Amino acid sequence: MEKTVGEQTVGIALLGTGVVGRGVIDILAQQRDLLRSRTGLTIEVRSRVCRDPSKYEDDETGIKATTNIADAIGDPKTGIVVEVMGGIDAPRHAISAALAAGKHVVTANKALLAAHGAELFELAKKHGVSIAFEASCGGGIPIIDALTRGLVANRIDALIGIINGTCNFILTQMAQNGWTYADALKEAQRIGFAEADPTMDVSGRDSAQKLAILATLAFNQQVSETDIALTGIDTLKAEDLQFVDDLGYVIKLLGIGERVEGQLALRVHPTLVHKGDLMSDVSGGFNAISVYGHAIGHQFFYGRGAGQTPTASAVVADILGVAMGTIPHAFERLNVFHGRLKKARALPADQMESRFYLRATTQDTPGVLAGMTQALARHGISIAAVHQPEIAAGTKHVPIVVTTHKASEGAMQKALAEIDAMKSVQAPTVFLRILERPAEFG
Amino acid sequence: MEKTVGEQTVGIALLGTGVVGRGVIDILAQQRDLLRSRTGLTIEVRSRVCRDPSKYEDDETGIKATTNIADAIGDPKTGIVVEVMGGIDAPRHAISAALAAGKHVVTANKALLAAHGAELFELAKKHGVSIAFEASCGGGIPIIDALTRGLVANRIDALIGIINGTCNFILTQMAQNGWTYADALKEAQRIGFAEADPTMDVSGRDSAQKLAILATLAFNQQVSETDIALTGIDTLKAEDLQFVDDLGYVIKLLGIGERVEGQLALRVHPTLVHKGDLMSDVSGGFNAISVYGHAIGHQFFYGRGAGQTPTASAVVADILGVAMGTIPHAFERLNVFHGRLKKARALPADQMESRFYLRATTQDTPGVLAGMTQALARHGISIAAVHQPEIAAGTKHVPIVVTTHKASEGAMQKALAEIDAMKSVQAPTVFLRILERPAEFG
How far apart are alpha carbons A377 and B365 in whole angstroms? Predict the structure, then answer.
């Protein structure tokens, strides 16, 4: 790929022809004039690699469809290989081949980068090419660009994000319609917001993979998915969404990374977010990321975290950034990527601190609340509020809701074990964390 | 400036030693190791240009203080000239000299860029150097980076922003404390949030200058300050903040740019923002910018729009981006800057449309409301809601609050003239616009 300025055509190979691949083709075709007028570049999709080329025989784009990855990568007029196939093994192989052939790579594949980022980034460096991956986190939000360039002057102290649109959609449906998790999931699947097997999303693993990528860039330590304490949304109960609503909160699946005394506290879990917080207004498929920097204080990015054109927007921006030379330039210089950093010093999960929400299911007998509060006190956990709703006479099980001040996970686990061992408590007691925002300029 | 990768020292000249200049020096000194580990770069402040170098005789930084701009620019070890002096004529002269000497320029000066951007950007192009100006809009928010790079794949359809922290601080004080404009301004001046002469901020001109810069990048047409219809906050009445609060709104000074049938509607005015809108939660000195792109839909950026370290964060990011070569690379290729674009086709102010809030001060006589509604109807303006509070018997003047559906400014001006001509109305009737967000993917 030449780097002369002026009108220039750059060829790309598109690996994968799913929703995002189609979005990339559409933007490149429909905004051809706009993109050329802005950048002087015309991006030519030289080939699309797919399983069944016969599907595209009548395709109006005229783009060559092929099953042959090696040919697509080897095409001398292809300077950039765009991977939107998903999965791990096949794209890992394809991207390695592309890098080895001296082709720049654009990928949206967070699972791959979280698992094999270090290896791929080193390979890219070795062959003097770049990997661009804006679309891997936060859909169309240019958060990777922000962390690596716009906010580069900051020591980042914390990063808090809603980074999985599927979970946020499900939680929004549960909160707004009073639905169970199962019903909200069914609706998400019906409208194509969740996959048939939703495990990667609802277990929180997808969020953890994205957090691993973002935290690596933010904190300049190599964060792996296994460094991250993980709780999904699949065990949430509709009644807790109702209780937290009464307390002035909504539940969001948050990915959180924070510096804690020389270590990183890294976790993904359903979290109570106060209704006065910007994050509480992030509904449906939207994503949002709060970044705390020593110089900027709090900064907040909001946008569509998934979907055909928002994700394709990030892929096309990467293609243009690579073709213009700006991304290769930054990639060559910046020492913020997996493979150039020390492994993260992750804080053990039991030492992480937060405020907690507990809901115990109890028999309506004297001394239950006393027993619970004593168990918390024994482990140094101080209570912020207690809520025990009046119930109809004769009801067997009474919920007791307690919120606490800051406590460690370890202390809370011990207190919970004691609470659940009480005769009058029906185990397990539900517990969730409450978001406390870090101090700005802290 | 060499472009080899690896450890490298880049010299800068700092023109201006005010709040932001001090912030730049502090970040470069305090985060020296962090910035070097990320970028391989050490930024050396070779000279600071100021009026009175004797002030810095005992300065612990040891940076040379001088009054001689030409010397500072001419220093062969200085590759980047950083202008944070403010004003128009002196920085225009200094930046021109720097560009002519083949030095890259980083500036935070929106007033200068709005007035003379075209000339300076052409000069930079001519001499093969770049101008970086992230700090000119939105403080530490990397909005210019987003518009020019992260969102480059989008046709931008609308941009809506709170882009003046001083006005937002004043409006927040008025809303939260029930203060008058004068009292809120006094408080803003007392704590250093407003200048002794606050005209540039409170008149909306500062917002208009920033909107001119952002709209040029977003819409790829050369927008001047004079293309923008302007109303400041200095005539706002405390009672209107109270009335809009009752209606479920807050008032924010918004800069708005929208594509309207091949033209650009460009305006800055106090605007009613519904309390359910993310923008309504932007308080105090914070800024926020909503961007609507054809591929991303709605995206929202929030952060500190002013202040020493947030603004310095953007300046330092620009310094590093220039020193790394990424900004010069993008600057050379992107045709989105003043001086490379056609003049904006600005929609005349009387053709701009919005919903309106009116507050008439009337005598409590029969037929007043009928007269008002008839005047609106004659100009095709349809009423959304009417609010006439009950008042104590004997009160002379009765407020009548009306909100309307969408109407043109021209029609509204005519209706208002007729309303103010009514005997029972005490002119002038207050009118404000109500934010209606554009449809996503519209």
Answer: 68
Residues A67, A94 share a domain: yes
The CATH number of residue B182's host domain is 3.30.360.10
Cα separations (Å) of B159 from A181, A236, A391, B143, B356? 37, 38, 51, 11, 20
In tens, the pLDDT along B374-432 reads 999 999 999 999 998 888 877 888 999 999 999 999 999 999 999 999 999 998 999 99
pLDDT band at A236 (very low <50, low <70, confident <90, very high): very high
Domain count, chain B: 3
For B179-199, the pLDDT digits (tens) are 999 999 999 999 999 999 999
Both A110 and A181 in one domain: the answer is no
Same domain, A209 and A291: yes
Q: Taking a C-beta distance cutoff of 8 angstroms, is the pair B372, B402 a contact?
A: yes
Q: Which of B78, B10, B63 is nearest to B40 (CA)?
A: B10
- Give the burial string for A363-391 (b: 16+ CB within 10 Å, else e): eeeeebbebbbebbeebebeeeeeeeeee
Whether A151 sits inside 8 A of B142 (CB atoms) is yes
Domain that holds residue B403: 349-434
DSSP secondary structure code for residue A204 in this structure: S
Report the number of secondary-structure helices (H) and strands (E) in chain A: 15, 17
Mean per-residue pLDDT, A207-229: 97
> Is B300 in the same domain as B152?
yes
Q: Which of A79, A327, A265 is nearest to B149 (CA)?
A: A327
Nearest CA in chain B to A40: B333
Which whole-number Å values give the CA distances from A4 to A7, A61, B329, in the listed order?
9, 28, 11
Answering whether pTM is above 0.95, one says yes
Based on the fold, state whether residues A242 and A365 are members of the same structural domain.
no
State how far the Cα of B414 lies from the Cα of B420, in Å rounded to an integer.
Answer: 10
Per the CB < 8 Å rule, is A295 touching B153?
Answer: no
Distances (CA, A) of B164 to B106, B141, B145, B285, B306: 21, 13, 19, 8, 8
What is the C-alpha separation between A103 and B435, in angstroms, rounded? 47
To the nearest whole Å, the CA of A159 is away from the closest chain B CA by 14
Choose, from A77, A210, A237, A406, the residue flagged as catalytic.
Answer: A210
DSSP A55: G
pLDDT tens track for A180-194: 999 999 999 999 999
Question: In this predicted structure, what is the pLDDT of residue A5?
Answer: 53
Q: Residue A311: closest CA among chain B residues belongs to which residue?
A: B296
Q: What angle (nearest 5°) sits at the alpha carbon of residue A56, between those of residues A52 and A57? A: 110
Measured CA to CA, the distance from residue A440 to residue A421 in angstroms comes to 41
User: Is the peptide bond preceding residue A328 cis, with omega within 30 degrees of 0?
Assistant: no
Backbone angles phi, psi at A435, to 5 degrees: -70, 125
Q: How much is the average pLDDT of A314-343?
A: 92
Yes or no, beta carbons of B324 and A330 under 8 Å apart: yes
Cβ-contact B240, B430 below 8 angstroms: yes
Greatest CA separation found in chain B? 81
CATH of the domain at A107: 3.40.50.720
- Residue A89, number of CB atoms within 10 A of its CB: 9
Q: Which among B151, B304, B324 has the least Cβ separation from residue A317? A: B151
One domain, residues B17 and B100: yes
Give me the CATH number covering residue A408: 3.30.70.260
B194 with B109, same domain: the answer is no
